[in-house]
Amino acid sequence: LILQLALLAATFFTTTALGARLARNFDANLPPFDLETDIYVFLAVWRNPRLLLDGLPYSLTLLGILLAHEFGHYFACRFHQIRASLPYFLPVPLGFGTFGAFIRLRSAIRSRAELFDVGAAGPLAGMLATIPALGIGLALSRAAPGLSAQSDVSFGTPLLMRAAAWFLFPGAAPEDLNLRPVARAAWIGLLATSFNLLPVGQFDGGHLVYARFGDKHRWVALAAILALFALWAATLFHGWLLVALIMAWLGRKHFAVVDDTPLGPGRRAVLALAAVIFILTFIPAPVQYNTGQALLP
Length: 297
Prior knowledge:
This protein is mainly alpha-helical and 297 residues long. The chain has ten helices and six strands. The protein is globular and about 55 Å long.
């Protein structure tokens, strides 16, 4: 428990500090991130801790989304009497301020139904926390034509956010929206949801596919890995290459579940819902470098 609390405190600090930078950039109509100088925000916070107050909307929203996701898994484990740890957070002093969180299973999963419930509970709970944050954050955001041209990186927009932005900002390009830090936290929540629903390995999506199709999971995983290689070739987002290589090594198999009783119609309907969520939250190129464009001084 001490380790989990320490990691949570460290992640709260990194996300709050970087959230203060996001808030400052939003107020100044600047791009959200500056990869070369974001590290200096920690020096500014050290000199003036009151700056952390500006970062709270981002950090509390993001940590709330991540906690909802992980506690979805945790309480599903408790419901099925599966021993599991409390969440471990992963702080990082750059970018979003965290690499996410995870829980550890400490006893075996006995059936496909249990595996499905544990795998589905996280993304569903995370989406329940993300959707209101997305709506509130976008409503408080503003269009800033030409904003993307000022940055050395641009961020992709999932279908769900595109639909909401089209409704709130008709005619504005998604990349030219100046997102409130709360909306940026929701964007990260959408990205994390789609990433976790990839149907490979030990991702939540891998658990769902194995629970539904058993050993046929390997063919779904292989198709997903090949699709990630193709997506990397099309978008040049190197994150997909890294994920595809790791999954080609580790993600083609799933641990065996002894009881292979097929899923009932209710859980199959939830699987269809998870597929829809994946489509609405998936971002083909989450981050891209804008070559040949002017950088901020």
